[in-house]
Structure prediction request, 300 residues.
Amino acid sequence: MHIRALRRALIPVLAACAVTVLIPAAASPAAAAGPGECRSTGSGELALISAGQRLESGSRLVDKVSAAELVMQPDGNLVLYALGNPGGYKLPLWNSGTYGNPGAYATMQADGNFVIYRKGGSAQTGGGIWHTATYGTSTVFTPRAYLLAGRFIVEGRGSSAATNRWSTASLEQMNQLCSDYESTLGWWAGSWAQSASVWLVLQRDNNLVMYRKSDGKAIWNSGTYGGSTPVTLQMGWGDTGDLTIRQGDGNGAVRWRTGTSGHQDAWALLQDDGNFVVYKKTGGPDKGGALWSTGTYNKI
Prediction:
């Protein structure tokens, strides 16, 4: 089975490192409340880096109520992690690819650019190894970078929509999807959700992968990796209960589906027992009515 596990793309990262907490975290999975709360979480409290501030080597940025942290690792790599059980495995969601530069640090510049510099480097002396390209002279935003709802966002001073805002595109979603979840609001590549025992990630290689929190091992995947066009995960109006992975273009070709069409208002739930299940409208974990599942309840 070919699984392009997300963590492989982020290695090498440090398995453990001493970190300085800028803002304390209190991570907890989204609670299941039935087939009606299926929008993105959008929750959290800004963990902010203002213009002129730095994320030093070995420090981290943590949203107070989110389940993610941004770590400026001692090896020079800036990594966004989904947090699991306290003291346990953390799932890498995104990284800057700048490992191999010990002592590097990140800074939010007054010109709107968020930059990683080698140890001893600066805007005056050079040594930049990665940046968001959000520099400019626009006054639309006050330059800042922040972690919120599982993604890291930079608001700069670029002159266009493409250059005044940058994001890791790693939005944490609710642990359910519903049949009324419009296609324009579906999961895009980088989106993820969690339960008490697993993470479910729509990876940038277009594969939907489930990782268990105990050790980060991939225990299920949709087999949709590859392709140059990003995909979406959705239960749109036209799918009538079918959970699908579609090409995110005008064609919208289906690359994977649960085969549960014909069940209007069906909904999907990422459960605490490690199973991802599609239920009919009146079904649920305590009611029955399962139409499809990953069968991973015994793999956590």
